[in-house]
């Protein structure tokens, strides 16, 4: 009796298996769009403060201008951090070799980023803020301002993720044989 190693590899590499195979490329495209759009919001807010000279309470990013509650909602920020974490975990199985290392770096940083947002959410829910601060405060926020910190966190997650995607698309021949998706560009002869 033959053992189906394909399904075993898919199950071990990430859930659901189709996200590591035939749907990996479109899922990565959607995920990248969401991540870059969110990162762009943080960049827009920084531009509003540092280039346009807006006071921080008025620097709401692009979506925060028509929907100001987005900027102050710990639920929304936590939900995005959780979505990022889930996306990084679910798409991880499609990465092999060098790209997997970079994806894992992004995932590791997002685990910490998620924990910081969980801490912020728990403070917002309970009303018990870290070290008696007047607003929910993350650990690193004790030494760095929130706007700059979250721009930095999102950059730390996004950059290795993009490096992973580039390496995944430009997989070496030894990596291509391990891939279950069609993400890699055709090999040059």
UniProtKB/TrEMBL annotation:
The keyword Membrane applies. The keyword Transmembrane applies. The chain crosses the membrane at residues 47-69, 75-95. Keywords: Membrane, Transmembrane, Transmembrane helix. This is Uncharacterized protein.
